[in-house]
Design brief:
Jelly Rolls; binds zinc ion; 3-stranded antiparallel beta sheet; 5-stranded antiparallel beta sheet
Length: 143
Amino acid sequence: MRQFSVSTTRREEFLDITAEVAAILRDIERESGPAEGAVLVYSPHTTAGITINEGADPDVRRDMLAHLAKLVPCDPGFRHAEGNSDAHIKTSLMGPSQLVPVTGGRLKLGTWQKIYCCEFDGPRRRTVLVQFLPSGSGAGEGG
Ligand code: ZN
């Protein structure tokens, strides 16, 4: 299991973490050759999730955040005393993880895809866990 940290700068933000995940795959390649399998990218947080979506046009991220805010407004009827139930709900809508195929040590993302850490209660420091899952049996734990 590997991990890295990111700092978000706003309450809600989609932070591109594709380069950090690719760097971990390069570390694994240096240690044990090109990775073949998949990589699990996991957020151990209750108000930050992981998603994959378009990276070319930043308006897509902006539109997604704006629409999530409409789907899950800050309802005064929420009972959770911390006052961030909207962040918890949006995090569950995105989910805590993504599984990305890996071949030749590279992420098999589509042309327009990026991996995002979805911050819904920032700004704060977030940890992202990365578990490489090698293909085939008897290949060991891998990274
Ligand atoms: Zn809370």
